[in-house]
Amino acid sequence: MLRLFVRRSNDVNYFTDDPAHELDGLREGGPGWWMRGSGDTRGPDDVRGVFGTTERSAVQGYDIVVAAPRPVSILIALDPEHAAGVVGAHRASVAATIGYLEERALVVRDRRGGEDRDEPARWRAIVSYTHGLNRHGEPHLHDHVLVGARPDGARGVLDGRALFAHVRAADALYRSSLRHEIAQRTPWTAWRSFQGIEHVQGLDEGLRALWGGHHQGRGEKLAWHRDDTVRQWRRDLERFESQGTVAPPRGDRGRLDEHSFAGALEGRADVARRHVVAAWANAARYGQAAKDTARAIDQLYPTLAESRGVREATIGLTQARMIGVVRERGPRPLAVSELAGWAQRPRERSGSWMDRSR
Predict the structure, then answer these.
(1) To which H or E segment does residue 314 belong?
(2) pLDDT tens-place string over residues 185-221
(3) What is the maximum alpha-carbon separation in the chain?
């Protein structure tokens, strides 16, 4: 899940004071890492410079919280041998997601001749903090990504509406990238159901109940060492009760779920690139590298290739579903790795969405 929080203070002690020892040995260096450049963060003064604003704005920056789905977080407690790979998959997907936001959602409004324009911008610096616990000691892999409100070299602050408009697409892109990266870096297979539930193949649903993440109180901020964390997770596992596993659907793992893709766009009169990104990423049941998602969408929707901000160019629903392409190429399923194979399979019986759209 990706959530966006406005920061009206440049106090960063909440982040710099947390050593996040629970992930010691599972990540490179300390919890703080620069998304551009290298090396650990040195302290509050170093990190505070990430934020920036203008005299007319009270917003200093944003805290972008990117959290792994519960089953993926559970892997860092259940499989110590491959936990570092899970953390690496998460960080790689966080970086790809912030890259998407910077490229597509980071704009500054410029009014010329009475017309608003969305000018592309770039953050001067981006720092992120990787944590592995929630306030109740449960496995909860997440990052706090800190960015400034005033882009590098800009006279004004960024358009916050654009950031919030792209949150849903960025969240879907992160989870799709994470599913892909988990398969690349660990022996586990992460997948997404048609109902939008994230799973890890072979992971007992009782573990999701054990570490559900839902509590009445918020709890106190924790600062556990790695050994304490591992002991706590072992004690938790003594209460584990099996509820069985959920098997993924049969079929080609390199194919998009075209029905999920079509359903995500249902009811929209105008479709922007961010809507296609969210639908596409969620339809990649076993995930896809973020760069491959961008490449596919830009090739299949060239009129949207330069779209950004909150006032993106739009296309109609029929074009978004690529129904013309379906009719031209026939019912050939799309392999994620082969763009030439795109099709949404028409159904034989009447009353399908393909029939209603003609």
Answers:
(1) strand 314-316
(2) 999 999 999 999 999 999 999 999 999 887 777 777 7
(3) 68
